[in-house]
Amino acid sequence: MIMIYICFVDPQDPDRLLQCPYDSNHQIRACRFPYHLIKCRKNHTDLANQFVTCPFNARHMVARGDLSFHISRCEDKSCIEQDIVDEKSMYKRDVSPSRWNSPPCDENWDNDLQTEPATFVWGTPSYQGPSYSTSTLMDPKNSLVSSLRAPKSLPYILPWKISK
């Protein structure tokens, strides 16, 4: 059973030394330990398959067979459980029914569809003003003789721009 625990006076001290689970000759400062674990895991692939990471603290590397024992005794488990209890109590709220009522609404979209004027069509008047004959309202405003019409688009080269 391989477990790596080194307890000093201050477990939060970033300069305390921890032993590498992959190589017992490696003594690493606590602040560098996660980086070292990644590096050593790549270098010792044969040992990496034998270890599992603790679900409560990624710095705890435990032999596969000892994981359930470690989980039952892991000191970081209590911190996680306390966080869960605190979180549940923080978000606990009163479940009484709401006294809010929606304001009255005068809109009726079905009636608006029935009373709305017809769809807009270009060239037809949409206002309800005095009635004029459509010929005087919609006649094109140009000074051409009635047999001639204005072009719909200009040619790419204007005739007077052509150099001769």
Explained architecture:
The chain is mainly alpha-helical and 164 residues long. Helix content is 30%, strand content 7%. It has six helices and four strands. The chain has helices spanning 33-43, 45-48, 67-73, 75-90, 109-115, 134-138; strands spanning 17-19, 27-29, 51-53, 61-63. Strand 3 and strand 4 (61-63) form a beta hairpin. The N and C termini lie far apart (103 Å). The model has no long low-confidence stretch (mean pLDDT 75).
How would you sum up the global shape?
elongated
SS-based class: mainly alpha
**Through-space gap between termini:** 103 Å
Q: β content, as a range?
A: 5-15%
* Oligomerization category of the chains in this entry: single chain
Low-confidence segments: none
Order of helices and strands: EEHHEEHHHH
Count of DSSP helices? 6
Strand order of the largest sheet: 1-2
Described by strand count, sense and barrel closure, the largest sheet is: 2 strands, antiparallel
Radius of gyration: 42 Å
Mean pLDDT: 75
Number of strands: 4
Helix content: 25-40%
Summarize the SSE layout with pairings.
Layout: E1 17-19, E2 27-29, H1 33-43, H2 45-48, E3 51-53, E4 61-63, H3 67-73, H4 75-90, H5 109-115, H6 134-138
Antiparallel strand pairs: 1-2, 3-4
